[in-house]
Every structure is written in C-alpha cells, then in structure tokens.
Amino acid sequence: MRIVSPRGLTVTIGVVLSAGALLTAFPFLWMIFGSVKPHSEAVGHPPRILPEEPTLRYFAQLFGELDFARYLVNTVVVVLISMAGVVLMAMAGYGFAKFRFRGRGPMFFLVLATMMIPVQVTMIPTYLILNGMKLTDTLVGIALPGLVSGFGVFLFRQFMVTVPTEMIEAARIDGAGEARIFWRIVLPLSRPVMAVQIILTFIGAWNSFLWPLIIAGDERLYTLSVGVSLLNRQIATSPSLQMAGSTLMVVPVLIVFVLFQRHIVRGFTLSGLR
Q1: Three-state DSSP state, 95
Q2: Which of 58, 179, 186, 212 has the CB geometry, 3.0–4.6 Å to 244, for a possible disulfide?
Q3: Radius of gyration for the alpha carbons in the chain, expressed in angstroms and rounded
C-alpha cells in the first residue's frame, strides 16, 4: 500500500477545492459575462462564456431608461436607516448582559422566541400597524420592520457578557454615567460583533424583496430587488438586460462579504457561537 506524502495530499485537496470553487462560481461568472454581451451573442447558439464584443449598453439602459438610479438610491437609504438599528440592538444586548432587573430572563426568552416566528406570519399585522402610523409608501416604512432583530440582540448579548464587569464598575466609581460607559467603553470593545451585525444588516436590507414589494405601492419607492424582478417581463427579448440587473444587485453584496468575511468569522467566534 502506497502512502501519500503530506505535500501530495495537500496538492490533491487544493485541486479538488479549486475545482469545486470554480464549479460553484460558474453561474456567477456566467451572469457577469452575460451582462456585457450584445443581444446577438446572448441568444446565440451554441452559447459562449466570454463575450466577443463586450458592451455596457445594458447598464446604461438600466440607469437611463428604467429608473434604476432611483431604485439604487432608495436601496441605499433603506440600508442607512437600517444601520440605526445596530445601535439599538447593541443597547438591548448591553442591558441584558450587564443589568440585573426583574423579568430579565423571561424577556430575553421572548426575544429569542421571535427568532422562531416566520417573517411571513407577521407581515399583515406589521402592515396594519404601519398603515395606522401613515408610514406605508415611505422608505421609513420599508426599513422599520427590520430595524431590530432577535438574533442581533442575542449576538450582542453573548459578546457583551464577556466584557469585564470590573471595568464598568470602575468607570461608575469614577463618576461616568451609563450613557458614557456604553459609548466610550462597551461599544469600542464590541467592534468585532458590531462589524458582524453591520454586514448582516447591510445584506438583509440590500436583498429585501417581499416587504418592499408589499409596503411600496408607488413604483418610485421600489428598491433594487423589486426593480430586478420587473425585468422578468423582458427576459425573453433581452436576457443581457436581466443579467445586468442581477449583476448590479449581487456584486455589491459579494464585495462587502469578501472584504469583511474575516470580521464575520471573528465576531461569531468571540460571541461564543458554534
């Protein structure tokens, strides 16, 4: 029986993983290349992966004719509003981690219980509440339901339990108020989990589709995900246009994830999640 050397095993594993990565990335590469193909190449047979005469015409059409610039601005605004929820979740997590008050255990259990409720179940009550508040057909109404999540509160709580209580008590003895302790001590120490939650919030707000479609009756308030779905009506005549819209939707998320993926792994590790 021949024993495989460690170097040979490493090379074999690398080749297998590279092949798997290429196979997984193929649909994404097809989308990218398809977005810059002329119509004749996009519908040509047999299909080719690389475009012979690449063009940015369909991206220009998205922003020039189909109002995707407005959809992009709407999406960015929704993302920015959602970012305010990161601070709210950090405050809630800090309260559950470092304060002792009656009912803390049952309240935290209720927060965790919200993670077991499908979003679709709460959509009608949420819509009725926002309609009563006159927030339908507004970007605030689109962002508000996703402002705080049970998972985010849980993530912050798990991390902030590890913050030394002695440090907080010393700050109180020195005369620091609770707000100052939170902003100047606890929040800076929570940068890893903050990075994780910011990334997750960005991805969730950017990819949100069903709720913006329900709450926004005015097409001028549509987000990118809803705008891309409108292109389905044109896929038979312009597949490259559909690919361009999908590329505009997917690439920013992938860029953010690739740039900050180490923060996600580190934050989950430090938060005690397995």
Answers
A1: helix
A2: 58
A3: 24
User: Mean pLDDT of all residues in the chain?
Assistant: 85
CA 22 from centroid of its chain's CA atoms: 24
Pair 141, 208: CB distance under 8 Å = no
Q: Measuring CA to CA, how many Å separate 32 from each of 40, 56, 200, 248?
A: 17, 11, 24, 10
- Domain definitions of the chain by residue range: 58-270
How many whole angstroms from its chain centre is CA 245? Answer: 18
Say if residues 241 and 234 touch (Cβ distance below 8 Å).
yes
Q: How far apart are CA 16 and CA 4, in angstroms?
A: 16
221-263: pLDDT as tens digits: 889 988 888 887 654 467 888 888 889 888 888 888 787 777 6
- For 76-106, the three-class secondary structure string (H helix, E strand, C coil) is HHHHHHHHHHHHHHHHHHHHHHHCCCCCHHH
The pLDDT score that the predictor gives to residue 273 is 45
- CA angle 15/266/260 to nearest 5° reads 70
The token pair that represents 257 in the structure block: 């994830």
* Each residue's pLDDT tens digit, 91-110: 999 999 999 889 888 999 99
Tokens of 37: 């193909």
**What is the homologous superfamily of the domain 58-270 according to CATH?**
MetI-like (1.10.3720.10)
Name residue 126's amino acid: T
